[in-house]
Amino acid sequence: MESSSSSSIRIRRFDELPTAKDFDSVIELSNVPAVFRGCTKSWKAFSHWNPSNGGLDYLQARVGSCTVEAMVSQSAPVFYGDLGSHQRVPLPFSNFLDFCKKPTQMQSKRHHQGLDHRAASQTDNDTKHACLSLEDAPKQIYLAQVPIMNSDRQETVQLETLKEDIQTPSILASKELSSINLWMNNAEARSSTHYDPHHNLLCIVSGCKRVVLWPPSASPSLYPMPIYGEASNHSSVSLENPDYSIYPRSECSMEFAQKVVLQAGDALFIPEGWFHQVDSDDLTIAVNFWWRSNMMSCMLEHMDAYYLRRILRRLIDKEMHNFPRTLEALVLHVLSPVGAEVLTRKFDEMDQHTLEEDRNGFYEAFYSAFDDQSAAMNSILKGKELFTQQAFKNVLDKFVGVNLEN
Question: Global pTM?
Answer without folding.
Answer: 0.76
